[in-house]
Amino acid sequence: MSLGLISRNGDLRRLRDEGYEVDVVNGYLLIGHVPYVNANKQVAYGILVSHLDLAGDSTVRPSSHVAFWVGDYPCNSNGLQLGSLVNDPNVHERIRDGLEATLSFSQKPAEGYEDYYQKMTAYVRILEGYAHLLEVNATAQTFPVIPLTEEESVFCYLDSASSRAGITAINEKLKKGRIAIVGLGGTGAYILDLVAKTLVGEIYLFDGDTFLQHNAFRSPGAPSCDALKKKLTKVEWFAENYSRIRRKIIPHPQYIDKTNVDELKSMDFVFLCLDKGEPKRNIVDYLIENKIPFIDVGMGLNIQDGALGGLVRVTTCTPSFHDHFTSRIPFDDGEDNEYSRNIQVAEMNALNAALAVIKWKKIWGFYIDLENEHHTVYGISTNLLTNEEAQNETKADQT
């Protein structure tokens, strides 16, 4: 498939985004798995083909209304041939080795076809309409999985969700740099889940812990008993699982402390998901000194009258705005630190992660940011989200 060609042209991209099996081969546009009725009054599937007119890498208005067909002679639901559709029943149009069109179709609107989306869907609708009389669920819109090479994308297959939503250009804003996640507990794991679905260049994971049974209940995914018995490190477990959707997840089965904090020197952004105060203080000092932006997350849940209450925190520091870290990021492991308690629940971890990733995306221009806050706290009992430490930074300052 000429993936770049399809992505650059709105009519071809629309066919792909609406779930058609689109391909471009030797100057031909193909749509596979098109349902039709054969002479036995059965639903079968063929390939619709058109010459593809291009100006460079851009499609132009189709010069011909004729389409070609790889399949048997199409019929109506009674098995009668669609003579009004078939223009030439003796075509020998070679598409590639092993693929030859044997029929051509002719259905010309008075003004011709505006683009290839209009042309191809017009023929699909005719064929599909007769097939629906026999099988209501017969469809050419199969939404195929589209694999990508490493040269094409960090993703293993096409992000059709973004293209269907029309936000591909906005996604490109995240297509750079190296992101580190320090700590793969519940919140760190959910941050990975969200960041892995962006175009960020590389994701580095740092954690020395083993992925154990209790981790399974506050992390994304559903590990099996056999998977838990392997006792992989957290970073190995998550790198292995998320490598199914994307490339360039680099696991480091080690803790970050003052002896190896320079592992973070080449990072463009860091998510800190630690519950230990002293290592965190060493990391924060290093990141500020080296002008590396970061977000620190924290959660303080407690039991109140037989129910859970508490706070979820997201603190952001950038090279030009970080003086608030001494009062907003706790480094005490003692009882006075409400964020040091280890009560964790999956939805609170997920919320903490979502707030952190949303802020990171705001920094890189993915989301609109009117508040420009650098400290956010969510209170469970009041369902209140509070923004503090706001400053009118420019995006240039932040990067």
Please tell me about this protein's structure.
It is built from 13 helices and 18 strands. Strands 13-12-11-14-15-16-17-18 form an eight-stranded mixed sheet, with helices on both faces. A six-stranded antiparallel sheet has the order 1-2-3-6-10-7. Strands 4-5 form a two-stranded antiparallel ribbon. It has helices spanning 3-8, 10-17, 116-132, 160-165, 168-171, 186-195, 213-216, 225-229, 234-242, 277-289, 325-328, 346-363, 395-398, and strands at residues 21-25, 28-37, 43-51, 54-55, 58-59, 67-70, 86-88, 93-96, 99-101, 103-105, 178-182, 202-206, 249-252, 269-272, 294-304, 307-317, 375-379, 384-388. A hairpin with a 5-residue loop joins strand 2 (28-37) and strand 3. It has two domains: 3-132, no CATH class; 160-398, NAD(P)-binding Rossmann-like Domain (Rossmann fold, 3-Layer(aba) Sandwich), CATH 3.40.50.720.
